[in-house]
Design brief:
Largest interface: A-B, 21 and 20 residues
Number of helices of chain A: 3
Helix content of chain A: under 10%
Helix content of chain B: over 70%
Radius of gyration of chain A: 20 Å
Distance between the termini of chain A: 42 Å
Oligomer: heterodimer
Shape of chain A: globular
Strand content of chain B: under 5%
Shape of chain B: elongated
Order of helices and strands of chain B: HHHH
Number of strands of chain B: 0
């Protein structure tokens, strides 16, 4: 980015913040099962703060005492989600999707400002395989497993079938242990809704017995501003028959379910969901929740249960009445994009619970998110406040060096974190 | 030229008002998109006409109250039109009711500004 470019962006952002009423975001206890929800409000302009990207240099993400973090792959083409294969190899889905025309003057301006907080690297549209041949934790081998995909995101392995959720279709590769390159082009399992792709990421998880796959499909707008017709088959989780591709809505009203994971001991489906913007710095909390079959979670008519969103017309009181309150608030605008269940190999303090990757906010004067947190569980439910696990992505100097997306627990005792700003894959392990 | 700009702003702001009414009546979001672009479009000739009028005000030949009222009306329609553009940048029904109210006011101001403007120009024999 040129100097003049930077200044122009800084000026734009300053103007936006100055005009949008209160610049400060009062702290509200917004984490946990029962968040405080303020009244919705919005100034003449939405609050936008895009932290200026900067290279890592000598810096590193920060991890808890007794843990260490290393970059195991650099210069990727927008790594999003990762998958640890049975032999320890790591697959990385790389790409940038989206296909949503600017409908208003606002879309043009806001799109430009938000792009300043993301990488300029072109979309990889591929899967990269990382291998640590000698087990020293350095992942010295890197090869392209498959390419010419369409913004691949969700990954799941069931026996010898590797499923990849592209932004337009769910596809399947054959996989045998140790393979470093796909044996051919993938077979299509089913098309996914993509005529417009505002929230383009297609999250993926395989059910416990592998017969069904769960695909997270985001809404086509913040809050129906592309019209209700654009929301057909959106803001929901599909259950897909892995063999036939037949699918049905499994749960609905989930604005943007960006990561799905199956809880190992119960077989329940869990999701992190990104909620709506532009009604204040502390609305609406993004959340972690178990996903009930047939459940409706509010979007677009209401949020966090029965809080009606007046921006939606026509309203639907019956749907509002049926909206389920999610399990656990992660805080507003943190933009959770990664989710995985931990294992005892991660160490005593982090043995039972989930890791959540938070990409970080834009619709807030004071940035939040930009870290990986751990939420402890007991008896299969969240049992306490989150613990910071990987931080330092947003520096105290106000610059952003990375933005976490997918988090994956390696059963050997490591957390894999994809960072789509610095195009790095990080690996956090316990120090011996 | 001044007359062309003045005449240009009115149908655009009026179109925005009609689009807002259509959105309020049908909840069909495309009307709201139309209104957003029409307001942005109306601001372009509106602000240029304001510049013309302001320059003419400071030149010689300012007779009567009309030129001054014309500039004030034009200024008011541009300022409120800009605020209206920001309100129309909100998502979905959040545009209402403020957007509709402002569209009425801005359309009325633009009509009045054009009326005073044309009578000023005619008085000077420019039209």
């Amino acid at each position: 980015m040129s100097r003049t470019h930077q200044l122009a962006v800084a000026a734009l952002i300053t103007v936006f913040c100055a005009c949008s009423g209160k610049g400060s975001d009062p702290d509200a206890p917004q984490v946990g099962p029962d968040p405080v929800l303020p009244e919705p409000r919005r100034g003449l302009l939405p609050t936008m703060t895009i932290a200026e990207p900067a290279p890592w240099g000598d810096r590193q993400p920060l991890v808890p005492e007794g843990y260490t973090v290393v970059a195991i792959a650099n210069d990727l083409k927008i790594p999003r989600q990762t998958l640890v294969l049975p032999n320890g190899d790591i697959l990385v889905a790389e790409g940038r999707g989206g296909n949503a025309p600017a409908l208003k003057p606002k879309d043009v301006i806001a799109g430009y400002i938000k792009s300043k907080g993301t990488t300029a690297v072109e979309s990889g549209n591929r899967l990269t395989l990382l291998r640590d041949g000698n087990g020293d934790g350095s992942y010295e081998e890197q090869s392209v497993f498959a390419e010419n995909l369409d913004a691949p995101y969700g990954l799941a392995l069931v026996d010898d079938a590797l499923y990849v959720a592209n932004q337009d279709a769910l596809v399947r590769f054959d996989y045998r242990d140790g393979q470093v390159r796909a044996s051919g082009p993938p077979a299509k399992v089913t098309d996914l809704p993509s005529a417009i792709n505002h929230h383009w990421t297609k999250a993926l998880a395989a059910g416990p017995d592998g017969r069904f796959l769960y695909v997270g499909i985001g809404s086509n707008s913040n809050i129906t501003e592309r019209g209700m017709v654009a929301e057909v088959d959106r803001a929901m989780v599909w259950e897909v028959n892995a063999r036939t591709g037949a699918h049905r809505p499994y749960a609905t009203g989930l604005r943007n379910p960006t990561a799905l994971s199956i809880q190992p001991e119960t077989g329940l489906l869990w999701a992190v969901v990104n909620e709506r913007d532009e009604i204040g710095p502390n609305l609406v909390p993004d959340y972690l929740t178990s996903v009930q079959e047939g459940g409706f979670y509010g979007w677009p008519y209401s949020y966090w249960g029965q809080n009606v969103d007046q921006r939606v017309r026509p309203q639907d009181p019956q749907k509002v009445a049926s909206a389920i309150v999610p399990d656990y608030s992660l805080g507003s605008h943190v933009a959770a994009l990664g989710l995985d269940f931990s294992t005892p190999a991660m160490g005593n303090d982090f043995a039972d619970g989930v890791f959540v990757g938070e990409h970080g906010s834009w619709n807030r004067a004071e940035p939040v998110g930009y870290k990986v947190i751990f939420i402890p569980f007991r008896n299969g439910r969240p049992s306490g406040p989150p613990i910071d696990f990987v931080t330092g992505f947003f520096g105290e100097d106000g610059k952003t060096r990375g933005r976490p997306v997918g988090v994956t627990v390696d059963p050997r005792g490591a957390l894999i974190v994809a960072d789509d700003l610095s195009n790095t894959v990080w690996r956090v392990v316990r120090r011996n | 030229m001044h007359a062309v700009l003045l005449a240009g702003a009115v149908p655009l702001f009026l179109g925005a008002l009609l689009s807002d009414i259509a959105y309020a009546a049908t909840y069909e979001i495309q009307w709201s998109n139309f209104a957003s672009w029409l307001i942005a479009g109306g601001l372009v000739p509106g602000i240029l006409a304001l510049l013309f009028a302001a320059i003419e005000l400071f030149r010689a030949d300012r007779s009567g109250w009309r030129p001054r009222v014309h500039v004030l009306l034009l200024l008011a329609s541009c300022v409120l039109g800009f605020i209206n553009a920001l309100i129309h940048a909100r998502d979905a029904w959040a545009v209402m009711p403020g957007g509709l109210v402002l569209s009425i006011i801005v359309a009325a101001l633009a009509c009045a500004a054009t009326w005073t403007g044309f009578s000023t120009l005619r008085a000077r024999g420019a039209v």
